């Protein structure tokens, strides 16, 4: 009696099952297909790619915007009157969405490599579409609410551009294996690689320079003291900044109802004091409508322990926490005395009181009186307000005149301005060189990250204002600096390695395809085993089955036209006529 073995003998493919199961919920082998993906599924793959790329840019934006997280939270506070760290939910949602789409992208690329049909599961489609729409909404919101922050992307590319180019080159080179299997897209992929190879021609960075031309390390100015280590605008904050070896102290000055200049950034006292406890009916009033006695009675440190704006309270000692709780609002006179005692400079901006304020017209003279009554030298004070500048120069001629307005050099000289205080988005390398050549110093704010500090250093700025002097203190040299020749060598080397790998991939793919085709042409379909007398491994059975299918397609032979037994080990073979059914056997008899 002849035993027959079924044609469909499968080997376990756990990895492939997981791949198609997670991506398209196709866990069974009969659900998979090697056919070309439909236009509908290709459209969803395009949507997935768009979601991934948009999230990649969105993630990069928030990664570089870390320098200005506190500014973002402060803008949210001004709009909602409630202090909260709005970056936490944004970062959590961005990380989740990016991880999800990146995982699906990897699965989709694996489908393409293995020749599997793309068939994204409907739940994945809903989630991907929701991620895309949410990201677009976030981009529109930031463009409306924080539009100026987009500049950080352009500026950061001057620092990260060379490394992003190498990373993109490595990714595209690694995807060469996928691209090589798609013959139709070879020409397009070659164009993409050519563009990537030539990208360094358009990369410009201040850090690509000769080390001999690097200027001195920029001085660090404590912006509102050291607000990451202690409550802003308090004596404790300025003392912490002095411990970090800052060269100057920066503050925002407001005039009280009785004409005392004090330090306050906000229009009201709600955020940085306990005014809601002592004066609940007046908590939304302008800070300048409180007299100095009332202001002095407020705590300027409890809010820092409660809100923990920089996530640093957990690292404070018990002594520092007690000291923080006892901080009060600081006056300009106190700041000037501290600076005089430690031989530091002071730079401040002055806010004019409202029209109903009794010192609305006297605000400049009130600030000048505080300077003249203190023991600080006039040349240690950097005067920023443009109001009544001529009168100020006439009253105290030794004050250092500074401006936060980017003006032509001739006009700066006419006004007697020797220092420009600019936002980092306005500090271009060519402008910095021009001002420095005219003996106008450049101070850039806010600079809280080492990469931005390094970029400003290579650009040639003289000083930076920072909320994080304790971080910049740990940057003795630029994070990276290289000459044009060194960068050119890295560029050419990486391009040559990429070209060699891509050519090797295409050659291997071509040879592998030719080998498979030659193997199918030389294989005899009659070698397929029907008899189970000799049990062959399932892997061999599958291989022979696949070769039979391909050979039948090429030779036009149907599976019902010819079947043979297995000839191995001296066993006889049987044709279709030799295998008789019971009916045929009875007829013959």
UniProtKB/TrEMBL annotation:
<feature type="transmembrane region" description="Helical">
    <location>
        <begin position="126"/>
        <end position="142"/>
    </location>
</feature>
<dbReference type="GO" id="GO:0005886">
    <property type="term" value="C:plasma membrane"/>
</dbReference>
<dbReference type="GO" id="GO:0012505">
    <property type="term" value="C:endomembrane system"/>
</dbReference>
<keyword id="KW-1133">Transmembrane helix</keyword>
<dbReference type="GO" id="GO:0005737">
    <property type="term" value="C:cytoplasm"/>
</dbReference>
<feature type="transmembrane region" description="Helical">
    <location>
        <begin position="488"/>
        <end position="508"/>
    </location>
</feature>
<dbReference type="GO" id="GO:0006629">
    <property type="term" value="P:lipid metabolic process"/>
</dbReference>
<comment type="similarity">
    <text>Belongs to the glycerophosphoryl diester phosphodiesterase family.</text>
</comment>
<feature type="transmembrane region" description="Helical">
    <location>
        <begin position="192"/>
        <end position="209"/>
    </location>
</feature>
<protein>
    <submittedName>
        <fullName>Glycerophosphodiester phosphodiesterase domain-containing protein 5-like</fullName>
    </submittedName>
</protein>
<feature type="transmembrane region" description="Helical">
    <location>
        <begin position="42"/>
        <end position="63"/>
    </location>
</feature>
<feature type="transmembrane region" description="Helical">
    <location>
        <begin position="90"/>
        <end position="114"/>
    </location>
</feature>
<feature type="transmembrane region" description="Helical">
    <location>
        <begin position="162"/>
        <end position="180"/>
    </location>
</feature>
<dbReference type="InterPro" id="IPR030395">
    <property type="entry name" value="GP_PDE_dom"/>
</dbReference>
<keyword id="KW-0472">Membrane</keyword>
<dbReference type="Pfam" id="PF03009">
    <property type="entry name" value="GDPD"/>
</dbReference>
<keyword id="KW-0325">Glycoprotein</keyword>
<dbReference type="GO" id="GO:0008889">
    <property type="term" value="F:glycerophosphodiester phosphodiesterase activity"/>
</dbReference>
<keyword id="KW-0378">Hydrolase</keyword>
<dbReference type="InterPro" id="IPR017946">
    <property type="entry name" value="PLC-like_Pdiesterase_TIM-brl"/>
</dbReference>
<keyword id="KW-0963">Cytoplasm</keyword>
<dbReference type="GO" id="GO:0045666">
    <property type="term" value="P:positive regulation of neuron differentiation"/>
</dbReference>
<feature type="domain" description="GP-PDE">
    <location>
        <begin position="218"/>
        <end position="476"/>
    </location>
</feature>
<keyword id="KW-0812">Transmembrane</keyword>
């Amino acid at each position: 009696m002849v035993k027959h073995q079924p044609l469909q003998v499968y080997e376990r493919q756990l990895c492939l099952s997981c791949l198609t199961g997670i991506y398209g919920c196709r866990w069974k082998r009969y659900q998979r297909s090697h056919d070309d993906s439909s236009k509908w599924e290709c459209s969803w793959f395009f949507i997935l790619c768009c979601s991934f790329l948009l999230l990649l840019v969105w993630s990069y934006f928030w990664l570089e915007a870390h320098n200005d997280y506190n500014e973002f939270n402060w803008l949210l506070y001004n709009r909602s009157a409630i202090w909260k760290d709005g970056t936490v939910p944004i970062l959590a949602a961005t990380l989740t969405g990016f991880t999800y789409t990146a995982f699906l992208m990897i699965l989709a690329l694996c489908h393409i490599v293995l020749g599997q049909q793309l068939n994204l599961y409907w739940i994945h489609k809903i989630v991907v579409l929701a991620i895309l729409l949410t990201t677009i909404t976030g981009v529109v919101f930031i463009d409306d609410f924080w539009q100026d922050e987009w500049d950080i992307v352009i500026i950061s590319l001057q620092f990260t551009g060379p490394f992003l180019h190498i990373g993109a080159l490595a990714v595209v080179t690694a995807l060469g294996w996928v691209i090589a299997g798609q013959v139709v897209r070879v020409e397009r992929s070659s164009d993409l690689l050519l563009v990537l190879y030539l990208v360094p021609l358009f990369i410009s960075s201040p850090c690509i320079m000769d080390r001999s031309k690097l200027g001195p390390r920029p001085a660090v100015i404590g912006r509102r003291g050291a607000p990451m280590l202690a409550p802003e605008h308090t004596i404790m904050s300025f003392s912490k900044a002095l411990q970090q070896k800052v060269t100057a102290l920066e503050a925002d000055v407001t005039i009280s109802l009785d004409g005392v200049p004090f330090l306050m950034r906000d229009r009201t006292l709600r955020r940085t004091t306990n005014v809601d406890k002592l004066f609940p009916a007046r908590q939304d009033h302008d800070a300048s409508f409180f007299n100095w006695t009332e202001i002095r009675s407020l705590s300027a440190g409890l809010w820092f322990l409660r809100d923990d704006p920089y996530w640093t309270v957990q690292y404070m000692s018990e002594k520092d926490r007690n000291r923080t709780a006892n901080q009060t609002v600081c006056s300009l006179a106190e700041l000037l005395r501290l600076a005089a005692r430690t031989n530091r400079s002071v730079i401040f901006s002055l806010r004019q009181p409202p029209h109903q304020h009794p010192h609305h017209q006297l605000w400049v003279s009130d600030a000048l009186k505080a300077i003249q009554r203190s023991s600080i030298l006039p040349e240690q004070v950097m005067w920023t307000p443009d109001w009544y500048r001529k009168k100020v120069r006439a009253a105290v001629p030794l004050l250092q005149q500074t401006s936060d307005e980017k003006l032509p050099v001739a006009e700066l000289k006419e006004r007697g301005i020797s220092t420009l205080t600019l936002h980092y988005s306005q500090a271009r390398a060519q402008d910095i060189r021009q001002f420095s050549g005219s003996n106008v110093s450049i101070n850039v704010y806010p600079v809280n990250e080492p990469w931005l500090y390094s970029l400003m250093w290579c650009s040639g700025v003289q000083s930076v204002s920072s909320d994080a002097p304790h971080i910049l203190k740990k940057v003795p040299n630029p994070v990276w600096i290289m000459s044009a020749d060194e960068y050119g060598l890295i560029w050419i080397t990486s391009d040559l390695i990429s070209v060699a790998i891509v050519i090797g991939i295409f050659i291997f793919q071509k040879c592998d395809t030719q080998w498979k085709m030659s193997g199918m042409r030389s294989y005899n379909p009659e070698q397929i085993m029907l008899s189970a007398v000799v049990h062959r491994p399932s892997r061999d059975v599958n291989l022979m089955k696949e070769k039979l299918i391909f050979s039948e397609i090429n030779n036009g032979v149907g599976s019902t036209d010819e079947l043979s037994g297995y000839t191995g080990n001296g066993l006889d073979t049987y044709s279709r006529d030799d295998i008789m059914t019971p009916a045929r056997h009875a007829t013959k008899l």
